[in-house]
UniProtKB/TrEMBL annotation:
Protein name: Probable membrane transporter protein
Membrane-related topology note: Multi-pass membrane protein
Membrane-crossing residue ranges in chain numbering: 12-30, 36-56, 77-96, 102-119, 131-152, 196-214, 226-246
Source organism: Hoylesella buccalis ATCC 35310
Keyword Membrane: yes
Subcellular location: Cell membrane
Gene Ontology terms: cellular component: plasma membrane
UniProt similarity note: Belongs to the 4-toluene sulfonate uptake permease (TSUP) (TC 2.A.102) family.
The entry's keywords: Cell membrane, Membrane, Transmembrane, Transmembrane helix, Transport
């Protein structure tokens, strides 16, 4: 009876976190994975948490792609995916041997620096295919290893000066493809089983509900103010990721 109550508590907790993660991701383009990973890790452990979060994020991002389909910036997204697909696979193979805590902290500090420069107006990347290709390289590799690609890919797509819905949908499309690649690799490494799939699906349902609510909200948001809010959230969530990793 005690184990049953504990299981029910975990399901309720993960559903609430999934809903919040979906709303967060669809509001600012990232943060769902950063919020999910520490909580799911506390329930299942890191080796299980990463595949579970990957399944949940795959379906969550796919739903954002469907919702914002007409606004996707396809050409830039494809340039991003060109290098990110093979490097996501490479990073996923390195998942079992990477020093995850150290790399997560380094990525967190790099994102804080990016966001501060963006808020100060000191960071300007050219809207050129090379920006998307380089961004895809870095994001794909880190995504495969740590399953926290959202802030990295968001930082790249934020340079395109897109409308909020176009930015969210384009980034989600790229993330969906990268998550598919990871699931395939994790499957080959025997890191995915039916229990992991069920847990990921359960969280995904809650995230999709959050996606729908948030995507309706951002349609009429001012683009410039929105980008500043995104940068500010990137700082706060990166600090949360660093602290949760060190604890």
């Amino acid at each position: 009876m005690q184990n049953f109550n504990a299981m029910n508590t975990s399901i309720i907790l993960l559903s609430i976190v999934g809903l919040m993660a979906g709303m967060l991701s669809s509001s600012i383009g990232f943060g769902g994975g950063m919020l999910l990973l520490p909580i799911v890790t506390s329930v299942y452990g890191i080796e299980v948490a990463v595949p579970v979060c990957t399944i949940a994020q795959l379906l969550s991002n796919a739903s954002r792609t469907v919702i914002g389909w007409k606004s996707i910036e396809w050409k830039k997204t494809l340039w991003f995916l060109l290098p990110s697909i093979p490097l996501t696979a490479l990073g996923a193979y390195g998942f079992s041997i990477a020093p995850k805590n150290i790399m997560t902290i380094i990525v967190g500090f790099a994102l804080i620096l990016f966001a501060i420069q963006k808020l100060r107006g000191k960071l300007h990347f050219p809207q050129h295919p090379a920006t998307m290709v380089v961004g895809g390289c870095v994001t794909g590799f880190i995504n495969g290893m740590l399953s926290i690609s959202g802030p990295l890919s968001s930082a790249v797509f934020l340079t395109l000066d897109l409308s909020p819905v176009s930015y969210i949908a384009s980034e989600a499309t790229a993330a969906t493809v990268m998550h598919v690649v990871k699931i395939v690799v994790y499957g080959k490494l025997n890191l995915v089983n039916e229990h992991i799939i069920i847990a990921g699906l359960g969280i995904a349902v809650a995230m999709i509900v959050g996606n729908y609510l948030a995507m309706r909200f951002i349609k009429n948001v001012d683009k410039k103010k929105y980008q500043k809010v995104v940068a500010g959230c990137m700082i706060l969530l990166s600090l949360f990721l660093i602290i949760s990793t060190m604890c």
